Amino acid sequence: MSREKTYSDIKNSLTVDYKFFNKVMGYENIYNSEYKKLNQMFKGLTKKTTYIKRWSYKEEKEIKEPFPANYTSIETNSFYGHYLSNDNLNNLAKDFPNIKKDYDLLKTKKDKVKLGKRPNNECDDYKKQYQEKLYKQAQLEDKAQCGICNKFWEQVDMNGRKNILADHGFHLGWGQRNGVCFGARYLSWERSPESKVAYIEKVLNPILKQLPKEKPTGVDLDKVIQQANNYNNLKAEIHNTPKDIQIKYNDLLSDYRYKSMIAYGKSPRPFSIGDEYITSPEKYIEVKATPEVLKLHELKEKITKPSIKFSGMQVAITLPTNKDDITLELLTRIWSDYKDQVEAEKLKFETAIKNWKLQLTPREKMNKDKA
């Protein structure tokens, strides 16, 4: 569950962004991606807004609606359209007193903006410093490197094994840990290559065994063309829904955003309508919508773009919605590119395993250097 962002969150984020700003200002030139990122940050910090623009389907025009009293909006790289009270804005001015001055300094670099990305050799020092920082932190906290995600994590004794890596990379949901890194509960990379060996055996090999059977055929082509037809038919049906029904539907969604406080930059708040407890826009529409509006909602819930997915893919590949653009050649190319990607990953892991040598963990190396 996402928690409410606090001023401390924004301060910490801006501190990181400012480090990036100071680093970039140290170079003679600035690259386009860097300038855009920093310009967006400073523009968001200096352009304070006390109202929000939204389209009114009743009035058929864009209208301005005020924010709650004593609130205004800022936009940074990490907090787009986040709301800050006047007290927090005053704290921002104290903690970052040179925002306007630094923005003016950035603008002086506009004539020196270069296309493309900064070459890696110019970033090597920064990357090296960052890796050194992570390594020192791992020494202090007695962490070791995961053989899969290559990050440093705590070592624990569990399941009858000593010094295995604790669960990491997960998020909590439905009362459990989801998305735990495969490298968790194996020995660290310094101690053993077992996590990579297991990953090849349990993940990559089964995928590569299954992929030849999934090479697209005419049957697969017919399926995704049918998906495209269904998508376009539903899209047309939604488009042909009477305008007054569409207005009512969009107004209900807008009402939900305000009643749940989402429109004010908050995490969604449950609320009640009579005896009904509203926890989602779907529930709100179910309670408030007429049968015609509810039918439109059901159409919107059904509509999905055509896609194709092969073994091991986390997310399906979205295909063109025009059926004439979907060909067997396209599907085969997607399949072949994915197969090449998995084979390359297996080769990379096998090479790392072949060259593996026992190493000291960061803490062990620190203790050895002190001895």
Strand order of the largest sheet: 7-8-9
Counting DSSP E segments of at least 2 residues, the number of strands comes to 15
Q: Please identify the structural class as seen in this structure.
A: alpha+beta
Which sheet architecture does the biggest sheet show? 3 strands, antiparallel
Separate helix tally: 12
Low-confidence stretches: none
Mean pLDDT: 86
Describe the protein's architecture and organization.
The protein has 371 residues and is of the alpha+beta class. 50% of the residues lie in helices and 15% in strands. The protein is built from 12 helices and 15 strands. The strands form 7 sheets. A 3-stranded antiparallel beta sheet has the order 7-8-9. It has a two-stranded parallel ribbon with strand order 1-6. The protein has a two-stranded antiparallel sheet with strand order 2-3. The longest helix is centred in the last third of the chain and has 27 residues, at 328-354.
What's a quick, concise take on this entry?
The protein is an alpha+beta fold and 371 residues long. The protein is built from twelve helices and 15 strands. Helix 6 packs antiparallel against helix 11 (328-354) and helix 8 crosses helix 10.
Give the SSE layout.
Elements (H helix, E strand, L loop, with lengths): L6 H19 L4 E2 H15 L4 E6 L4 E6 L4 E4 L7 E4 H10 L3 H9 L5 E2 L5 H22 L1 E3 L6 E7 L2 E5 L5 E3 L2 E3 L15 H17 L7 H22 L3 H17 L11 E3 L2 E3 L2 H8 L2 H12 L4 E2 L8 E2 L9 H27 L7 H9 L1
Parallel strand pairs: 1-6
Antiparallel strand pairs: 2-3, 4-5, 7-8, 8-9, 10-11, 12-13, 14-15
